[in-house]
Write a structure and sequence with these properties.
The chain is an alpha/beta fold and 364 residues long. The protein folds into 2 domains: 193 residues, Isopropylmalate Dehydrogenase, CATH 3.40.718; 158 residues, Isopropylmalate Dehydrogenase (3-Layer(aba) Sandwich). Helices cover 38% and strands 19% of the residues. It is built from 12 helices and 14 strands. The strands form 3 sheets. Strands 2-1-3-12-11-4-5-10-8-9 form a 10-stranded mixed β-sheet, with helices on both faces. It has a two-stranded antiparallel sheet with strand order 6-7. Helix 1 packs parallel to helix 12 and helix 10 runs antiparallel to helix 11. The chain starts with a strand and ends in a 9-residue tail after the last helix. The structure holds nicotinamide-adenine-dinucleotide. Nicotinamide-adenine-dinucleotide binds next to helix 4.
Length: 364
Protein backbone atom coordinates (compact mmCIF):
# COMPACT_ATOMS: atom_id res chain seq x y z
CA UNK A 1 0.00 0.00 0.00
CA UNK A 2 1.59 3.20 -1.14
CA UNK A 3 0.39 6.45 0.36
CA UNK A 4 1.38 9.85 -1.01
CA UNK A 5 1.81 12.27 1.89
CA UNK A 6 1.25 15.89 0.86
CA UNK A 7 1.41 18.14 3.94
CA UNK A 8 1.22 21.52 2.14
CA UNK A 9 1.31 24.87 3.94
CA UNK A 10 0.47 26.51 7.25
CA UNK A 11 -0.91 24.03 9.77
CA UNK A 12 -0.74 21.37 7.03
CA UNK A 13 2.70 20.22 8.13
CA UNK A 14 1.75 20.17 11.81
CA UNK A 15 -1.45 18.14 11.45
CA UNK A 16 0.09 15.77 8.91
CA UNK A 17 2.92 14.87 11.30
CA UNK A 18 0.28 13.65 13.77
CA UNK A 19 -1.67 11.66 11.17
CA UNK A 20 1.54 9.94 10.02
CA UNK A 21 2.36 9.12 13.64
CA UNK A 22 -1.07 7.52 14.02
CA UNK A 23 -0.71 5.50 10.80
CA UNK A 24 2.69 4.25 11.97
CA UNK A 25 1.16 3.13 15.27
CA UNK A 26 -1.13 0.69 13.46
CA UNK A 27 1.62 -1.81 12.62
CA UNK A 28 0.46 -2.17 9.03
CA UNK A 29 3.01 -2.14 6.25
CA UNK A 30 2.61 1.11 4.36
CA UNK A 31 5.00 2.78 2.04
CA UNK A 32 4.64 6.49 2.68
CA UNK A 33 6.32 9.04 0.42
CA UNK A 34 6.08 12.80 0.96
CA UNK A 35 6.14 15.61 -1.57
CA UNK A 36 5.76 19.36 -1.57
CA UNK A 37 2.48 20.90 -2.65
CA UNK A 38 0.88 24.35 -2.59
CA UNK A 39 2.89 27.38 -1.50
CA UNK A 40 5.75 25.18 -0.28
CA UNK A 41 6.05 23.65 -3.78
CA UNK A 42 5.78 27.06 -5.41
CA UNK A 43 8.72 28.31 -3.29
CA UNK A 44 10.86 25.27 -4.15
CA UNK A 45 9.82 24.50 -7.73
CA UNK A 46 7.97 27.57 -9.01
CA UNK A 47 4.64 25.70 -9.27
CA UNK A 48 2.05 24.68 -6.64
CA UNK A 49 1.60 21.24 -8.22
CA UNK A 50 4.96 20.17 -9.67
CA UNK A 51 5.09 17.26 -12.10
CA UNK A 52 6.92 15.13 -9.50
CA UNK A 53 4.14 15.64 -6.93
CA UNK A 54 1.43 14.88 -9.47
CA UNK A 55 3.27 11.72 -10.57
CA UNK A 56 3.61 10.56 -6.96
CA UNK A 57 -0.13 11.15 -6.43
CA UNK A 58 -0.95 9.20 -9.59
CA UNK A 59 1.29 6.27 -8.62
CA UNK A 60 -0.01 5.99 -5.04
CA UNK A 61 -2.96 3.89 -3.87
CA UNK A 62 -4.21 6.83 -1.83
CA UNK A 63 -3.24 10.41 -1.05
CA UNK A 64 -3.27 12.04 2.36
CA UNK A 65 -3.36 15.81 1.97
CA UNK A 66 -2.90 18.49 4.63
CA UNK A 67 -3.91 21.97 3.47
CA UNK A 68 -2.57 24.65 1.16
CA UNK A 69 -2.63 28.42 1.02
CA UNK A 70 -1.40 31.56 2.68
CA UNK A 71 -2.46 35.18 2.39
CA UNK A 72 1.04 36.05 1.13
CA UNK A 73 0.30 34.29 -2.17
CA UNK A 74 -2.93 36.22 -2.83
CA UNK A 75 -1.22 38.56 -5.28
CA UNK A 76 0.23 35.76 -7.43
CA UNK A 77 -1.23 35.03 -10.84
CA UNK A 78 -4.07 32.52 -10.29
CA UNK A 79 -2.24 29.56 -11.89
CA UNK A 80 0.58 29.87 -9.33
CA UNK A 81 -1.61 30.20 -6.24
CA UNK A 82 -1.39 27.30 -3.75
CA UNK A 83 -5.12 26.48 -4.03
CA UNK A 84 -4.56 25.54 -7.69
CA UNK A 85 -2.73 22.44 -6.42
CA UNK A 86 -5.82 20.90 -4.87
CA UNK A 87 -7.98 21.87 -7.83
CA UNK A 88 -5.34 20.36 -10.15
CA UNK A 89 -5.18 17.10 -8.19
CA UNK A 90 -8.97 16.76 -8.25
CA UNK A 91 -9.02 17.38 -11.98
CA UNK A 92 -6.03 15.22 -13.00
CA UNK A 93 -7.09 12.30 -10.80
CA UNK A 94 -10.80 12.54 -11.69
CA UNK A 95 -11.81 12.91 -8.03
CA UNK A 96 -15.42 13.83 -8.64
CA UNK A 97 -17.09 12.58 -5.47
CA UNK A 98 -16.38 14.40 -2.24
CA UNK A 99 -17.63 12.76 0.97
CA UNK A 100 -17.88 15.04 3.97
CA UNK A 101 -19.39 13.34 6.98
CA UNK A 102 -20.54 15.73 9.71
CA UNK A 103 -20.69 13.76 12.89
CA UNK A 104 -21.22 15.32 16.28
CA UNK A 105 -19.36 13.31 18.88
CA UNK A 106 -21.34 12.90 22.05
CA UNK A 107 -18.44 14.44 23.98
CA UNK A 108 -18.56 17.60 21.81
CA UNK A 109 -22.25 18.45 21.85
CA UNK A 110 -21.42 21.45 24.03
CA UNK A 111 -18.70 22.70 21.66
CA UNK A 112 -21.28 23.31 18.93
CA UNK A 113 -22.68 26.77 18.47
CA UNK A 114 -26.16 25.20 18.40
CA UNK A 115 -28.16 23.93 21.37
CA UNK A 116 -26.91 20.47 22.42
CA UNK A 117 -30.31 18.85 21.77
CA UNK A 118 -30.18 19.99 18.13
CA UNK A 119 -26.81 18.34 17.44
CA UNK A 120 -26.62 15.40 19.88
CA UNK A 121 -26.27 12.27 17.76
CA UNK A 122 -25.93 14.23 14.52
CA UNK A 123 -24.63 12.05 11.69
CA UNK A 124 -25.08 13.45 8.20
CA UNK A 125 -23.11 12.91 5.02
CA UNK A 126 -22.62 15.69 2.51
CA UNK A 127 -21.70 14.44 -0.97
CA UNK A 128 -20.33 17.28 -3.03
CA UNK A 129 -19.66 17.07 -6.77
CA UNK A 130 -16.05 18.14 -7.05
CA UNK A 131 -14.85 18.52 -10.61
CA UNK A 132 -17.56 20.57 -12.30
CA UNK A 133 -19.81 23.59 -11.69
CA UNK A 134 -18.72 27.21 -11.64
CA UNK A 135 -15.31 26.32 -10.14
CA UNK A 136 -14.19 24.65 -13.38
CA UNK A 137 -16.59 26.02 -16.02
CA UNK A 138 -15.08 27.87 -18.97
CA UNK A 139 -15.02 30.61 -20.14
CA UNK A 140 -14.12 32.78 -17.20
CA UNK A 141 -12.18 35.99 -16.88
CA UNK A 142 -12.33 39.78 -17.01
CA UNK A 143 -13.47 41.92 -19.90
CA UNK A 144 -15.28 45.09 -20.81
CA UNK A 145 -19.04 44.71 -20.56
CA UNK A 146 -20.94 45.08 -23.80
CA UNK A 147 -24.38 44.89 -22.14
CA UNK A 148 -25.87 44.58 -18.64
CA UNK A 149 -26.40 47.48 -16.26
CA UNK A 150 -23.09 49.20 -17.06
CA UNK A 151 -22.02 48.69 -20.70
CA UNK A 152 -18.39 49.71 -21.16
CA UNK A 153 -17.48 48.98 -17.52
CA UNK A 154 -14.85 46.43 -16.47
CA UNK A 155 -16.51 43.15 -15.41
CA UNK A 156 -15.61 39.62 -14.32
CA UNK A 157 -17.49 36.42 -15.16
CA UNK A 158 -17.47 32.66 -14.51
CA UNK A 159 -19.44 29.84 -16.11
CA UNK A 160 -21.77 27.52 -14.20
CA UNK A 161 -22.31 24.26 -16.08
CA UNK A 162 -23.05 20.58 -15.53
CA UNK A 163 -23.30 17.81 -18.10
CA UNK A 164 -25.74 14.89 -17.79
CA UNK A 165 -23.01 12.23 -17.06
CA UNK A 166 -21.49 14.44 -14.34
CA UNK A 167 -24.84 14.68 -12.56
CA UNK A 168 -25.72 11.04 -13.13
CA UNK A 169 -22.53 9.67 -11.60
CA UNK A 170 -22.70 11.81 -8.45
CA UNK A 171 -26.40 10.96 -8.05
CA UNK A 172 -25.55 7.23 -8.21
CA UNK A 173 -22.84 7.75 -5.56
CA UNK A 174 -25.36 9.50 -3.30
CA UNK A 175 -28.12 6.91 -3.68
CA UNK A 176 -25.67 4.07 -3.12
CA UNK A 177 -24.26 5.77 -0.01
CA UNK A 178 -27.80 6.31 1.28
CA UNK A 179 -28.48 2.57 0.96
CA UNK A 180 -25.74 1.99 3.55
CA UNK A 181 -27.38 4.52 5.87
CA UNK A 182 -31.00 5.53 6.50
CA UNK A 183 -31.99 5.60 2.82
CA UNK A 184 -32.77 9.28 2.45
CA UNK A 185 -31.17 11.71 -0.02
CA UNK A 186 -31.71 15.46 -0.12
CA UNK A 187 -30.61 16.94 -3.43
CA UNK A 188 -29.79 20.62 -3.00
CA UNK A 189 -30.19 22.97 -5.95
CA UNK A 190 -31.26 26.43 -7.02
CA UNK A 191 -33.65 25.22 -9.73
CA UNK A 192 -35.97 28.18 -9.18
CA UNK A 193 -33.34 30.56 -10.61
CA UNK A 194 -30.56 28.65 -12.38
CA UNK A 195 -30.94 26.60 -15.57
CA UNK A 196 -27.95 24.46 -14.55
CA UNK A 197 -29.71 23.44 -11.36
CA UNK A 198 -33.09 22.81 -13.00
CA UNK A 199 -31.17 20.33 -15.17
CA UNK A 200 -29.46 18.96 -12.03
CA UNK A 201 -32.86 18.40 -10.40
CA UNK A 202 -34.29 16.70 -13.52
CA UNK A 203 -31.34 14.32 -13.89
CA UNK A 204 -31.23 13.42 -10.17
CA UNK A 205 -34.96 12.65 -10.36
CA UNK A 206 -34.37 10.37 -13.37
CA UNK A 207 -31.52 8.49 -11.64
CA UNK A 208 -33.72 8.10 -8.56
CA UNK A 209 -36.02 5.80 -10.56
CA UNK A 210 -33.30 3.14 -10.17
CA UNK A 211 -33.38 3.46 -6.38
CA UNK A 212 -37.03 3.05 -5.36
CA UNK A 213 -35.97 1.98 -1.85
CA UNK A 214 -34.32 5.38 -1.23
CA UNK A 215 -36.37 8.48 -0.41
CA UNK A 216 -35.48 11.57 -2.47
CA UNK A 217 -36.20 15.12 -1.41
CA UNK A 218 -35.29 18.28 -3.36
CA UNK A 219 -34.41 21.46 -1.52
CA UNK A 220 -33.30 24.94 -2.61
CA UNK A 221 -29.87 25.85 -1.33
CA UNK A 222 -31.05 28.87 0.66
CA UNK A 223 -33.59 26.71 2.49
CA UNK A 224 -30.96 23.97 3.00
CA UNK A 225 -28.63 26.51 4.62
CA UNK A 226 -31.45 27.48 6.97
CA UNK A 227 -32.57 23.91 7.74
CA UNK A 228 -28.99 22.89 8.54
CA UNK A 229 -29.00 25.18 11.55
CA UNK A 230 -32.69 24.76 12.36
CA UNK A 231 -33.09 20.96 12.31
CA UNK A 232 -29.84 19.37 11.08
CA UNK A 233 -30.80 15.88 12.20
CA UNK A 234 -33.63 15.84 9.63
CA UNK A 235 -30.94 15.26 6.96
CA UNK A 236 -29.15 12.02 6.17
CA UNK A 237 -27.31 12.21 2.81
CA UNK A 238 -27.13 15.61 1.10
CA UNK A 239 -25.98 15.66 -2.53
CA UNK A 240 -25.16 18.91 -4.27
CA UNK A 241 -22.93 20.73 -6.72
CA UNK A 242 -19.41 21.96 -6.18
CA UNK A 243 -20.07 25.50 -4.96
CA UNK A 244 -23.15 24.81 -2.83
CA UNK A 245 -21.37 21.79 -1.34
CA UNK A 246 -18.35 23.88 -0.48
CA UNK A 247 -20.45 26.34 1.47
CA UNK A 248 -22.90 23.92 3.11
CA UNK A 249 -20.17 21.57 4.29
CA UNK A 250 -18.38 24.40 6.09
CA UNK A 251 -21.68 25.37 7.67
CA UNK A 252 -22.22 21.75 8.73
CA UNK A 253 -18.76 21.67 10.26
CA UNK A 254 -19.81 24.16 12.89
CA UNK A 255 -22.60 21.83 13.98
CA UNK A 256 -19.96 19.31 14.93
CA UNK A 257 -18.07 21.73 17.15
CA UNK A 258 -15.21 22.77 14.89
CA UNK A 259 -13.99 22.55 11.34
CA UNK A 260 -10.95 20.94 12.94
CA UNK A 261 -13.05 17.78 13.45
CA UNK A 262 -14.26 17.31 9.88
CA UNK A 263 -12.52 14.78 7.61
CA UNK A 264 -13.20 14.34 3.91
CA UNK A 265 -12.64 11.88 1.10
CA UNK A 266 -12.53 12.71 -2.61
CA UNK A 267 -12.93 9.60 -4.72
CA UNK A 268 -12.59 8.69 -8.37
CA UNK A 269 -14.74 6.10 -10.14
CA UNK A 270 -12.70 3.19 -8.77
CA UNK A 271 -12.51 4.50 -5.18
CA UNK A 272 -8.93 5.69 -5.36
CA UNK A 273 -8.99 8.78 -3.24
CA UNK A 274 -7.50 11.90 -1.80
CA UNK A 275 -8.18 12.36 1.90
CA UNK A 276 -7.95 15.71 3.63
CA UNK A 277 -9.40 17.71 6.48
CA UNK A 278 -12.22 20.01 5.39
CA UNK A 279 -10.42 23.06 6.69
CA UNK A 280 -7.69 25.17 5.10
CA UNK A 281 -4.13 26.00 6.13
CA UNK A 282 -5.25 28.34 8.95
CA UNK A 283 -2.41 30.87 8.60
CA UNK A 284 -3.70 32.66 11.73
CA UNK A 285 -2.61 29.76 13.96
CA UNK A 286 0.14 28.16 11.84
CA UNK A 287 3.38 27.39 13.66
CA UNK A 288 1.80 27.78 17.10
CA UNK A 289 1.25 24.07 17.73
CA UNK A 290 -2.43 24.60 18.57
CA UNK A 291 -4.21 23.26 15.47
CA UNK A 292 -6.61 20.38 15.90
CA UNK A 293 -5.14 17.34 14.09
CA UNK A 294 -8.27 15.18 14.48
CA UNK A 295 -9.82 16.04 11.09
CA UNK A 296 -6.63 14.83 9.40
CA UNK A 297 -6.37 11.76 11.62
CA UNK A 298 -10.02 10.93 10.85
CA UNK A 299 -9.28 11.50 7.14
CA UNK A 300 -6.58 8.83 7.46
CA UNK A 301 -9.24 6.52 8.89
CA UNK A 302 -11.48 7.20 5.89
CA UNK A 303 -8.51 6.43 3.63
CA UNK A 304 -8.01 3.06 5.30
CA UNK A 305 -11.69 2.24 4.89
CA UNK A 306 -12.41 3.50 1.35
CA UNK A 307 -9.15 3.08 -0.58
CA UNK A 308 -6.94 0.64 1.35
CA UNK A 309 -9.56 -1.93 2.41
CA UNK A 310 -8.50 -1.83 6.06
CA UNK A 311 -11.82 -1.27 7.86
CA UNK A 312 -10.57 -2.72 11.16
CA UNK A 313 -7.67 -0.25 11.23
CA UNK A 314 -10.10 2.59 10.43
CA UNK A 315 -12.27 1.49 13.36
CA UNK A 316 -9.23 1.50 15.64
CA UNK A 317 -8.45 5.12 14.76
CA UNK A 318 -12.05 6.26 15.18
CA UNK A 319 -12.35 4.49 18.53
CA UNK A 320 -9.08 6.05 19.65
CA UNK A 321 -10.37 9.53 18.76
CA UNK A 322 -13.51 8.89 20.81
CA UNK A 323 -11.33 7.67 23.69
CA UNK A 324 -9.21 10.85 23.79
CA UNK A 325 -12.34 12.98 23.67
CA UNK A 326 -13.84 10.92 26.49
CA UNK A 327 -10.61 11.42 28.45
CA UNK A 328 -11.35 15.15 28.26
CA UNK A 329 -8.54 16.23 25.93
CA UNK A 330 -9.35 19.19 23.68
CA UNK A 331 -7.44 21.46 21.34
CA UNK A 332 -8.39 25.14 21.65
CA UNK A 333 -11.05 25.05 18.93
CA UNK A 334 -13.16 22.45 20.78
CA UNK A 335 -12.20 23.36 24.32
CA UNK A 336 -14.92 24.04 26.88
CA UNK A 337 -14.97 24.56 30.65
CA UNK A 338 -13.96 21.42 32.54
CA UNK A 339 -11.86 19.89 29.76
CA UNK A 340 -8.07 19.83 29.33
CA UNK A 341 -6.57 22.07 26.66
CA UNK A 342 -3.78 20.39 24.68
CA UNK A 343 -1.67 21.24 21.64
CA UNK A 344 -1.47 19.54 18.26
CA UNK A 345 1.32 17.16 19.22
CA UNK A 346 -0.20 16.14 22.56
CA UNK A 347 -3.47 15.37 20.81
CA UNK A 348 -1.66 13.17 18.25
CA UNK A 349 0.28 11.44 21.05
CA UNK A 350 -2.95 10.76 22.90
CA UNK A 351 -4.53 9.12 19.84
CA UNK A 352 -1.40 6.97 19.42
CA UNK A 353 -1.58 6.03 23.11
CA UNK A 354 -5.23 5.02 22.73
CA UNK A 355 -4.41 2.91 19.67
CA UNK A 356 -1.54 1.13 21.35
CA UNK A 357 -3.55 0.53 24.50
CA UNK A 358 -1.55 2.88 26.71
CA UNK A 359 -3.18 5.08 29.33
CA UNK A 360 -4.04 8.49 27.96
CA UNK A 361 -2.31 11.05 30.17
CA UNK A 362 -4.22 14.22 30.85
CA UNK A 363 -1.55 16.14 32.74
CA UNK A 364 -1.49 19.90 32.18
P1 LIG B 1 -9.27 27.90 7.26
O1 LIG B 1 -10.09 26.67 7.24
O2 LIG B 1 -7.82 27.75 7.02
O3 LIG B 1 -9.48 28.67 8.65
C1 LIG B 1 -10.75 29.14 9.09
C2 LIG B 1 -10.73 29.29 10.62
O4 LIG B 1 -10.75 27.98 11.22
C3 LIG B 1 -9.47 29.98 11.14
O5 LIG B 1 -9.80 30.76 12.25
C4 LIG B 1 -8.59 28.81 11.59
O6 LIG B 1 -7.69 29.15 12.63
C5 LIG B 1 -9.61 27.79 12.04
N1 LIG B 1 -9.13 26.42 11.82
C6 LIG B 1 -9.01 25.79 10.62
N2 LIG B 1 -8.51 24.56 10.81
C7 LIG B 1 -8.31 24.41 12.13
C8 LIG B 1 -7.79 23.35 12.93
N3 LIG B 1 -7.39 22.18 12.42
N4 LIG B 1 -7.70 23.55 14.27
C9 LIG B 1 -8.11 24.70 14.81
N5 LIG B 1 -8.61 25.74 14.12
C10 LIG B 1 -8.71 25.59 12.78
O7 LIG B 1 -9.93 28.88 6.18
P2 LIG B 1 -9.45 30.33 5.68
O8 LIG B 1 -8.89 31.09 6.83
O9 LIG B 1 -10.59 30.86 4.93
O10 LIG B 1 -8.29 30.03 4.63
C11 LIG B 1 -6.90 29.99 4.93
C12 LIG B 1 -6.13 29.50 3.72
O11 LIG B 1 -6.47 28.14 3.47
C13 LIG B 1 -6.47 30.26 2.44
O12 LIG B 1 -5.28 30.45 1.72
C14 LIG B 1 -7.43 29.32 1.72
O13 LIG B 1 -7.42 29.50 0.33
C15 LIG B 1 -6.85 27.98 2.11
N6 LIG B 1 -7.79 26.85 2.02
C16 LIG B 1 -7.25 25.68 1.61
C17 LIG B 1 -8.04 24.55 1.57
C18 LIG B 1 -7.41 23.25 1.16
O14 LIG B 1 -6.20 23.13 1.20
N7 LIG B 1 -8.17 22.23 0.76
C19 LIG B 1 -9.39 24.61 1.96
C20 LIG B 1 -9.90 25.84 2.40
C21 LIG B 1 -9.07 26.96 2.44
Amino acid sequence: MKIAILPGDGIGTEIMAEAVKVLNALDLSFEMESALVGGAAYEAHGHPLPESTLNLAKAADAILFGAVGDWKYDKLERQFRPEQAILGLRKHLGLFANFRPALCYEQLTHASSLKPELVAGLDILIIRELTGDIYFGQPRGRRTAVDGHFPGAEEAFDTMRYSRPEIERIAHVAFQAARQRSKKVTSVDKANVLETFQFWKDVVTEVHAQYPDVELQHMYVDNAAMQLVKAPKAFDVIVTGNMFGDILSDEASMLTGSIGMLPSASLDKSSKGLYEPSHGSAPDIAGKGVANPLATILSAAMMLRFSLQQPAAADRIESAVKAVLSAGLRTGDIWSEGTKKVGTREMGDAVVAAITGKTITTKT
